[in-house]
Design goal:
InterPro entries: Aldolase_TIM, Class_II_FBP_aldolase, FBA_II. With 290 residues, the protein is of the alpha/beta class. The protein has one domain: Alpha-Beta Barrel (TIM Barrel). Helices cover 48% and strands 17% of the residues. It has eleven helices and twelve strands. An eight-stranded parallel barrel has the order 2-3-4-5-6-9-11-12, surrounded by nine helices. Helix 4 packs parallel to helix 5 and helix 7 packs across helix 8. The longest helix is centred in the C-terminal third of the chain and has 23 residues. The protein is globular and about 60 Å long. About 2% of the residues have low confidence. The chain binds zinc ion. The site of zinc ion (ZN) has 5 residues, from loops. The site of zinc ion has 5 residues, from loops.
């Protein structure tokens, strides 16, 4: 069933676990994510990133995501990831998304507060939740944070606990993405994580916090982050790689190369993505929580 981010993360707070937020870029990935959540009795966040519009439009995949959520046996949040503008957040809410992220983290603090508040007012009036970002998520390849091509040092990327408190109180967001050393994409070098910072931010203001760049950490790092207050973990890169590997394996194993059907390739991708989503949900300890 369709759920809001607020509902799902409140339960995660009570149970001290995190809910996986998996990016959906195709019908196949959406099916893999929701089917796994049902098999594990886990809540899940099915999200569409504005940056994936070159792969598929929200106007095509959005209604499919909403339908997958509505017929699911477990709570599914349909969320806009890294909404690039106030307009795109409003568009997602109008379509029926139950949650949006507005990312103005590259802008000055006061602009981030004012614009996020604008999105919160619109979304809350319509029953949807809002995630925002303060601090910066690094990008692993270039070592620079995302957003308008600006680059940040590690120290600049870390979220300040007092600023987080002020930001949350002034914007009334439901969840906040924070910087503590994680990066989007594939880690080419070991990330320098400040996991204690999560606990400091959490003790300054007790709301659910979000980890971006969640692919590729060790199980121990995930568990510490969750214990310290992370309740939503964005996960995509390694899921997509798992699907690719599943397809490659299928093609290698297939003896009759003249009988390769697209539906079988899609199925091999779904099976491999499901195994990776299952592994992630077990680490996040969201399995069996419904
Ligand atoms: Zn992100």
């Amino acid at each position: 069933m369709l759920a809001t981010l607020k509902e799902v993360l409140e339960k995660a707070e009570q149970g001290n676990y995190a809910v996986g937020a998996f990016n959906c870029t195709s019908l196949e990935s959406g099916m893999a994510i929701v089917e796994t959540a049902e098999e594990l009795n886990s809540p899940v966040i099915l999200q569409y990133a504005d940056s994936h519009r070159h792969l598929i439009s929200i106007d095509v995949i959005g209604p499919i995501m909403l339908q997958l959520a509505k017929i699911a046996k477990v709570p599914v949040v349909v969320h806009l990831d890294h909404g690039a503008s106030i307009e795109s957040c409003r568009h997602a809410v109008d379509m029926g998304f139950t949650s949006v992220m507005y990312d103005a983290s590259a802008k000055p603090f006061e602009d981030n507060v004012a614009e996020t508040r604008n999105v919160v007012e619109y979304a809350h009036e319509r029953g949807a939740s809002v995630e925002a970002e303060l601090g910066h998520i690094l990008t692993s390849k270039a070592g620079a944070a995302e957003g308008n091509g600006k680059s940040y040092t590690r120290e600049e990327a870390y979220t300040d606990p007092e600023m987080a408190k002020e930001f949350i109180e002034r914007t009334n967001v439901d969840a906040l993405a924070i910087g503590f050393g994680t990066a989007h994409g594939i880690y080419t070098e070991k990330p320098v994580l400040d996991l204690n910072r999560i606990a400091l931010i959490k003790s300054a203001k007790d709301i659910p916090y979000v980890m971006h760049g969640g692919s590729g950490l060790s199980e121990e790092e995930y568990r510490t982050a969750i214990h310290n207050g992370i309740r939503k973990i964005n996960y995509y890169t390694y899921l997509s790689l798992a699907g690719g590997r599943g397809v490659m394996q299928y093609l290698e194993d297939k003896k009759d190369k003249d009988a390769i059907y697209f539906e079988d390739i899609a199925k091999a991708g779904i099976t491999a993505m499901k195994a990776d989503v299952k592994r992630a949900m077990k680490i996040f300890e969201s399995d069996g929580k419904i």
